[in-house]
């Protein structure tokens, strides 16, 4: 097992390098970089706040020719000012040198500072992480809490009308995009056009600090209701069907027939023998399911409901071309995803010692 873990850890290095290299290459061709963002702001067309760009805007004012600078909207600006902006954002160096420095810094978890916020990238990510963790944790628990009993019920009623109509509902729910359902919930229940029952934005109310503990808990879940419903719509399908198929496979095995022949009750067979074996794959997949819920659907949902988490941070950073935040979050998310995949595999071997990854090729 040690050799397998070492191989997986070593494979993470080229995987991370590939992810970062492709993303870095794409960024090189994306229009509207941070230099152009500052120029647009100084020309009255942007929204990033030139006063946050480390004083670079204080040198603005000279008339000159910068038609050859390669930046849109830079006509009439002093070339020295454009050059200073490039130096400040690090664009005065060749792309390969910038990429190499970024990878070297990231390998030591030094992510620098945000271009447009006076805070380090790591502090910014840590500040936003509790909201996304909260969403990911609750959606995972909610998904497992409903999907597992439903999957077991579907396995016991395989082929019945209950199994048929619940499968139809699950498939339809899985096909509906979460962000579209979120907009529908806002229209119906958040004062869009019908009822005003739930808050439209934020994770807590403005007077949250003045509430008692029971009121804080109620307020917290009141704000979480619509985002969780929107996120959980498609989260049930995979776990429910996986649970059903896993239980069906176990129920049809010989040891179940033998247990029935010995006179054991159906509940004793189901929860004393079948449940333990059928749940191996479900339990082992929990780390991956949590990470998937944590990252996959948070961006649009957090943006729609104005939840100040990593999803909204990523969206705003891409929009503002805040590259240190964009690349740092990509690096951290990719690293966490790779480590979680390894943990999931190791969980399989811990739950079922018969599984041996040492005998398999990575």
Written account of the structure:
The chain has 362 residues and is mainly α. The protein has two domains: 2-120, no CATH class; 122-357, MetI-like (MetI-like fold), CATH 1.10.3720. The chain is 67% helix and 0% strand. The chain contains 16 helices and no strands. Helix 1 (2-28) runs antiparallel to helix 16 (323-351) and helix 15 packs antiparallel against helix 16 (323-351). The longest helix has 36 residues, at 121-156. It is globular, with a radius of gyration of 26 Å. The two termini are 12 Å apart.
What is the chain-wise order of helices and strands? Answer: HHHHHHHHHHHHHHHH
Mean pLDDT across all amino acids? 78
Point out poorly predicted stretches. Answer: 47-68
Indicate the structural class: mainly alpha
**Which CATH class of the largest domain applies here?**
Mainly Alpha
From the 3D structure, determine the CATH topology of the largest domain.
MetI-like fold
Number of domains: 2
CATH architecture of the largest domain: Orthogonal Bundle
Question: What is the CATH homology-level superfamily of the largest domain?
Answer: MetI-like
**Largest sheet: number of strands, sense, barrel closure:** none
SS summary, helix count: 16
The radius of gyration over CA amounts to 26 Å
Estimated share of beta-strand residues: under 5%
| Overall outline | globular
* Distance separating the two termini: 12 Å
Helix content: 55-70%
How many DSSP-defined strands?
Answer: 0
């Amino acid at each position: 097992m040690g050799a397998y873990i070492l191989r997986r850890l070593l494979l993470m290095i080229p995987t991370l390098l590939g992810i970062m290299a492709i993303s870095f290459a794409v960024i090189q061709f994306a229009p509207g970089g941070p230099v152009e963002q500052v120029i647009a702001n100084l020309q009255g067309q942007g929204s990033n706040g030139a006063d946050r760009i480390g004083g670079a805007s204080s040198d603005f004012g000279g008339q000159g020719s910068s038609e050859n600078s390669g930046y849109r909207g830079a006509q009439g600006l002093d070339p020295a000012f454009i050059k200073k902006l490039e130096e400040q954002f690090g664009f005065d160096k060749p792309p390969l040198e910038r990429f190499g420095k970024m990878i070297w810094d990231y390998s030591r978890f030094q992510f620098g500072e945000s271009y447009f916020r006076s805070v380090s990238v790591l502090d910014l990510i840590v500040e936003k992480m509790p909201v996304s963790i909260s969403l990911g944790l609750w959606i995972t628990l909610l998904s497992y809490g409903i999907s597992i009993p439903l999957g077991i019920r579907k396995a016991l009623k395989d082929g019945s009308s209950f199994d048929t109509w619940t499968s139809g509902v699950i498939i339809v729910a899985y096909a509906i995009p979460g962000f579209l359902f979120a907009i529908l919930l806002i229209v119906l229940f958040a004062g869009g056009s019908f009822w005003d029952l739930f808050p439209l934005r934020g994770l807590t109310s403005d007077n949250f600090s003045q509430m008692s503990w029971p009121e804080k808990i109620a307020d917290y879940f009141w704000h979480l209701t619509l985002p969780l419903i929107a996120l959980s719509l498609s989260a049930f399908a995979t776990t429910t069907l996986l649970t059903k198929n896993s239980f069906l496979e176990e129920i049809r095995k010989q040891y179940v027939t033998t247990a029935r022949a010995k006179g054991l009750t159906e509940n004793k067979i189901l929860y004393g023998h079948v449940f333990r074996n059928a749940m191996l794959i479900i339990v082992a997949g929990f780390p991956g399911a949590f990470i998937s819920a944590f990252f996959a659907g948070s961006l649009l949902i957090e943006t729609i409901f104005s939840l100040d988490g990593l999803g909204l941070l990523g969206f705003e950073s891409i929009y503002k071309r805040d590259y240190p935040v964009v690349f740092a979050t990509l690096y951290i998310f990719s690293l966490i995803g790779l480590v979680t995949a390894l943990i999931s595999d190791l969980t399989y071997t811990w739950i079922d010692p018969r599984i041996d990854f040492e005998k398999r090729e990575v």
